[in-house]
């Protein structure tokens, strides 16, 4: 079930109407070409040799038997292929001008010595057949010196902990400083002095893999000094730039093609080591090389969401006013930092005294990086469970407690719009919150217990500059060129709808050209929930420019065309731009076996105007399902004695099945804040932020025990009830 509450916003000619994906037939009939589907003449197949140790120095490597195997065309190792990956970036860096891209401390290569996690790459081969490539890899002989390792972020900061790098285990920031990330607002000690009660607790969250259906895959082909790269990248423009930078090329010497992909969720941001390994093998072998990771390789060799430890201290008055908030956090980044390691959630509260200190820490686990809303789901899980716990301890309804303390716009920090009160109240009414929650948590008689939980969020709308080009011919056929990749949400359809609306024509009259850097202008890429806002705005402005030309010159005739282009610089006039959401969930827990079952799930989101309700609903539903999975199942576990990963895959790290997925009531409140294309804001990531916290709060309400470690597995529930 889903509904849209419109505040003066009715569907337009195209915008706001349920619209099938314009490439649906291609997808369901197998015509859609994914990276793995490309075949080039003389194509070879690559395979990577990976470290079996969490930390080891490579003393020697013998590739002679692999090189002698018939069919092997190239073998590369850390000794003959010193190719930098990320050019030393310690913080990812999404835009050309991102200062993180200038950092060079703890530079990462496609092959590293020492190796620093199980799955770290050591060598690669290219052969005429996949089986030959696999055999060749098995013939490479490596002598290791095993080194001490550390897996947990708090342990890594102890004085006697094994060092991932000689400088220690605290990650440097993009300025090259070895210091925690600190946010200090107001006077937190004075705030605690005002409090009637102070509560302190610790929350832990595990490593979560993106678990996209399509493993990492890359096809590299050199045409002279130009690299053509087929790769499932979420941002082809940035992938081109990063790949060129890593290989010592100019941007125009790299062409990135990414038409379709089987999910990304942040896992396929920028360029990846597979791109660089395939490119290096292709150069060495003078032939195209296809490199496809196995599921286990994808799980271990490609990043996931970082595990965290969060220590909270909350001061509150007896009337429910929060006077001070403090969080000391630790993020396990693995041995190579690819993102900030943020833990976000406290800023959703209006408390004037807040202190947050986060230490991103090197460990010998799989590398951490972007995963749909990178810093938020674990952060909101911690703070929302903490605040829910505080509310019950002081005898307040968590919804009432939230409404009392959540952040609101101020004269100093205005919002483009604010709808959080309406979002929460609408969700509480649709869910029937007062009837479903247990005033006394865990008060059901018997082993089968029910409870209800709630969470809320505000989530920043993305930023970044994009370009768009629109062309029209004499037949009044429009062609839109945008540098997006359709990773699943339907960006191709969305861009087409925006163009059709802006051009006042039918969607069927608009051809969308996408996913090829040689044909398309720069786009911010599909990450950070920015595509609709930033690239969509560029499409609107390019359409306006084309319409001005048509008004001045009339429609073209013969073989002539008219072309409009735009690269707008978005602005919100200094205001904070957010989307808002609230999730309510009722859960049933069988305390005899520790099982959980979701009985009812209600979501309310304000994401501006909804361009295509069909795909928007799917975005919220899919993100919510991911969040539920993170809450109750998923974690990459390690053997603390050997450092070996124990759950690298779908079947070991339990994921939701269709049987587990509840009906999700999805409700949108439409508001045009005056800044997005036709009033659109952000939807893609917001659903996943709320689900872990809401589920955690519901479990606590059902069993009367607060689960302070995510995922909330059967054994943890049984342990809490013992």
Q: What would the keywords be for this entry?
A:
Aldehyde Oxidoreductase, domain 4; 4 domains; 26 strands; Aldehyde Oxidoreductase, domain 3; 722 residues
Describe the structure.
With 722 residues, this protein is an alpha/beta fold. It folds into 4 domains: 1-9 and 406-463 and 571-722, Aldehyde Oxidoreductase, domain 4; 35-147 and 216-292, Alpha-Beta Complex (Aldehyde Oxidoreductase, domain 3), CATH 3.90.1170; 150-207 and 305-396, Aldehyde oxidase/xanthine dehydrogenase, molybdopterin binding domain (Aldehyde Oxidoreductase, domain 4, 2-Layer Sandwich); 464-508 and 518-566, 2-Layer Sandwich (Aldehyde Oxidoreductase, domain 4), CATH 3.30.365.10. Helix content is 26%, strand content 23%. The strands form 6 sheets. The chain has a 7-stranded mixed sheet with strand order 4-5-2-13-10-11-12, sandwiched between helices. It has a 6-stranded mixed sheet with strand order 7-17-16-15-8-26, with helices on both faces. The radius of gyration is 26 Å and the shape is globular.
